[in-house]
Amino acid sequence: DFTASVIGKLGSVVIHGVNIKPGKPVVLGMVRGKPVIGIPGYPVSAALTFGLFVKPLVYAMQGRVVPPQGSVIAKLSRNAASSLGQEEFLRVKLGKVSGALIATPVTRGAGALMSLVRADGIIRIPAGSEGLGAGEEVHVDLLRPVHEVENTIVCIGSHDPALDMLANALKKKHPALSLSSAHVGSLGGLLALKRGEAHLAGTHLLDEETGEYNVSFIRKHLPGKRIVLVNLVHRDQGLLVPKGNPKRIAGFEDLARKDVSFVNRQAGAGTRLLTDLHLKRLRIDPEQVNGYNREEYTHMAVAAAVLSGTADTGLAVLSAARALGLDFVPVAKERYDLAVPEEFFESPLLAALLGIIGADRAFRDQLVAMGGYDVSEMGKVMAVLL
Question: Does the reported pTM lie above 0.85?
Answer without folding.
Answer: no
